[in-house]
UniProtKB/TrEMBL annotation:
Similarity comment: family membership: Belongs to the class-II aminoacyl-tRNA synthetase family.
Any one biological process term the GO annotation gives: asparaginyl-tRNA aminoacylation
InterPro entries on file: Aa-tRNA-synt_II, aa-tRNA-synth_II, aa-tRNA-synth_II/BPL/LPL, Asn-tRNA-ligase, Asp/Asn-tRNA-synth_IIb, NA-bd_OB-fold, NA-bd_OB_tRNA, WHEP-TRS_dom
Keyword hit for Protein transport: no
GO molecular function, one term: nucleic acid binding
EC number: 6.1.1.22
PANTHER family: ASPARAGINE--TRNA LIGASE, CYTOPLASMIC 1-RELATED (PTHR22594:SF54), ASPARTYL/LYSYL-TRNA SYNTHETASE (PTHR22594)
Gene3D superfamilies (UniProt xref): Bira Bifunctional Protein, Domain 2 (3.30.930.10), Nucleic acid-binding proteins (2.40.50.140), S15/NS1, RNA-binding (1.10.287.10)
Organism: Papaver atlanticum
Domain Aminoacyl-transfer RNA synthetases class-II family profile: 329-560
Name assigned to this protein: asparagine--tRNA ligase
One Pfam family cited in the UniProt record for this chain: tRNA-synt_2
Keywords, sorted A to Z: Aminoacyl-tRNA synthetase, ATP-binding, Ligase, Nucleotide-binding, Protein biosynthesis
Length: 570
């Protein structure tokens, strides 16, 4: 009997990591008994070398048409593994063609790969021998017809839009950037740390945070319960007090009469029960409908976390605790901002990549940020070129050239003061936002610097302390902080970072100067009290990186499930 080989974790990992090659046989998916379309037409020979091989494929019909007076049908099949489709031919003797030609139909088929006739654009096609599974579609009701659909339309069909060429390409590009992010930091010995989504501190000090509370549901539940079972009346409480008094006197009488131990124990038990009943009645009598109040304000000590809590705007403060013990770390996760903005650049939920480097100053921070952005850009050129070509064809003809520029060009570095002086001298255009020292540079200023003046990525550093967060290190001039922003063409600011303030007395004063309470940041101050260390870090807005790469204009199109004011589908 032949020995059964059970795949090991290492074997599975090797299979998953395998890319289309010129091997004479198709690469089968380890876990779904099929061949991915990218492993057929994504090969150097376009799949020609697989002609004659029997395989199974699954996917969704992009277009289908019956031919030969209904004797067979051509299906353009896509499984999401790459932007290209595989042409599939099904004879009417194999399956009812009307059930599988509609756009959106899902099919799982088995057949033989073959070379198509000369003069056709396909390198290889699949002649189906068996239709194994079908997920049908009613063409009259399917929301995504074959016609060209706008990105605005697709935002109203967020659950189906991954089936479109654009959104599936964006998903693969986003995935590649996430994989590249972990690859870069792991390669450079950074430790990945999961920071909390629920926090009690405001990293930005802006106050635009989503509150996390159970007070509303608790209050509704209490009001409903009080309506069905009203609180104890004063008469009930007085009767319970009287009963406790009587039970207490009974115990005293038994003890004075030197009654037996069982008799006294039984009486004490009755007294205890009476006291417990009284305590419950008194507690219930104190229950009031409405939000719990203390000194005219909401009493958060009654809330789930016994204090105010929020969805995080950044994992930076928390990940610093690990940087101050494990040296180089990073976090990569969702963050939230309750900003009532409907612009194409803002989301209520977005992802941030936030590394922290111990024993590092601002220059080290800038070097790391530049290397990271270059790595991401080159990664897409090396691993996602087919999807990038689709973006160039349909949206931004300069997308690939922009990646090449960033990957190969040293970033310009300029102080904030010099950048403002340069912008103040601009005469060839009129900015909507006036330029003067002390302002927070707007997107139009950032893009002018990177697209017009330097024509490459720019790092602006040493910003006025008044427009930056309390944790950024105060420079010796007392006016600026060791902060930096990485600006790139198309989006402007891509990264914001700084050397962190490691001096206890300075950061304590900075917190107070910005009108923030010290108490929520006591743990953060402890990092300066005990073994303080010079350290730096930055945050990259992940959706902005996807925008920069793809050339799309609206940030709502580069995140799978966009959340913004008035919209939280699924």
């Amino acid at each position: 009997m032949a020995e059964t080989v059970i795949p090991t974790t290492e074997m599975a990992a090797a299979t998953l990591a395998e890319t289309p090659s010129s091997s004479s046989s198709a690469v089968w998916s380890e876990f779904s008994k099929r061949v991915l379309i990218k492993n057929i037409i994504g090969r150097p020979d376009g799949g020609v070398g697989l002609a004659g091989e029997k395989i199974k494929v699954g996917g969704w019909v992009k277009t289908g048409r019956e031919q030969g007076k209904g004797s067979f049908a051509f299906l353009e099949l896509n499984d999401g593994s790459c932007p290209a489709n595989l042409q599939v031919i099904v004879d009417s003797s194999v399956y009812e063609l009307s059930q599988i030609v509609a756009t959106g139909t899902c099919v799982f088929v088995e057949g033989v790969l073959k070379k198509p006739p000369e003069g056709t654009k396909q390198n290889v096609e699949l002649k189906v021998e068996k239709v194994l599974e079908v997920g049908g579609v009613d063409p009259a009701k399917y929301p995504l017809p074959k016609t060209k659909l706008t990105l605005e339309f697709l935002r109203d069909h967020v659950h189906l839009r991954p089936r479109t060429n654009t959104i599936s390409a964006v998903a693969r590009i986003r995935n590649a950037l996430a994989y590249a992010t972990h690859t870069f930091f792991q390669k450079h010995a950074f430790l990945y740390v999961h920071t909390p989504i629920i926090t009690t501190s405001d990293c930005e000090g802006a106050g635009e945070m989503f509150q996390v509370t159970t007070l509303f549901s608790d209050t509704e539940k209490l009001e409903k319960e009080l309506k069905e079972n009203p609180p104890s009346s004063e008469d009930e409480i007085e009767a319970a007090k009287l009963l406790v008094k009587e039970k207490g006197e009974a115990v005293a009488v038994l003890k004075a009469a030197k009654a037996t131990k069982p008799e006294i124990t039984a009486a004490v038990s009755e007294l205890t029960k009476s006291k417990e009943k009284l305590a419950k009645l008194e507690e219930r009598s104190r229950l009031k409908p409405g939000m719990p109040q203390k000194d005219g304000k909401i009493d958060y000590s009654s809330d789930f976390f016994a204090r105010q809590a929020f969805l995080t705007v950044s994992g930076q403060l928390q990940v610093e605790t690990f940087a101050c013990a494990l040296s180089n770390v990073y976090t990569f996760g969702p963050t939230f901002r309750a900003e009532h903005s409907h612009t194409s650049r803002h989301l209520a939920e977005f992802w941030m990549v936030e590394p922290e480097l111990a024993f590092a100053d601002l220059e080290d921070d800038m070097n790391c940020a530049e290397a990271y952005v270059k790595f991401l850009s080159q990664w897409l050129l090396d691993n996602c070129l087919d999807d990038m070509q689709l973006m160039v064809k349909n949206f931004d003809k300069t997308a690939i050239d922009r990646l090449k520029l960033v990957a190969s060009t040293p970033f310009e570095r300029i102080t904030y003061t010099d950048a403002v002086a340069l912008l103040e001298k601009v005469t060839d255009r009129r900015f909507e936002n006036a330029v003067e020292w002390g302002i927070d540079l707007a997107s139009e200023h950032e893009r002018y610097l990177t697209e017009v003046v330097f024509k490459k990525p720019v790092i602006v550093y040493n910003y006025p302390k008044g427009i930056k967060a309390f944790y950024m290190r105060l420079n010796d001039d007392g006016k600026t902080v060791a902060a930096m922003d990485v600006l790139v063409p198309k989006v402007g600011e891509l990264i914001g970072g700084s050397q962190r303030e490691e001096r206890y007395d300075v950061i304590e004063k900075r917190i107070l100067d910005q009108g923030l309470p010290l108490e929520p940041y006591e743990w953060y101050l402890d990092l300066r009290r005990y073994g303080t260390v010079k350290h730096s870090g930055f945050g990259l807005g992940f959706e902005r990186m996807v925008l920069f790469a793809t050339g799309l204009d609206n940030i709502r199109d580069v995140i799978p499930f966009p959340r913004y004011p008035g919209k939280a589908d699924l």
